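[Q] Does anyone have a clean structure-token version of this?
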Amino acid sequence: MARGTKVERNSVSNQEHEIKYEANKLDVKPGKIKDAKESTGNQRKAIEKKVK
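[A] Here you go.
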């Protein structure tokens, strides 16, 4: 992987900017991402599946 390339990680941390990024990407409110994260865990695919 080249230096400076953007990579979307497999998990979503509790940092506000990651929650906001995921919310903007899925066009939902950040609270919905937090709720999905609590019930499914940190895996990005599981969170996206729960929100959709």
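[Q] Thanks! Anything notable?
[A] The helical segments are 16-26, 30-40, 44-51.
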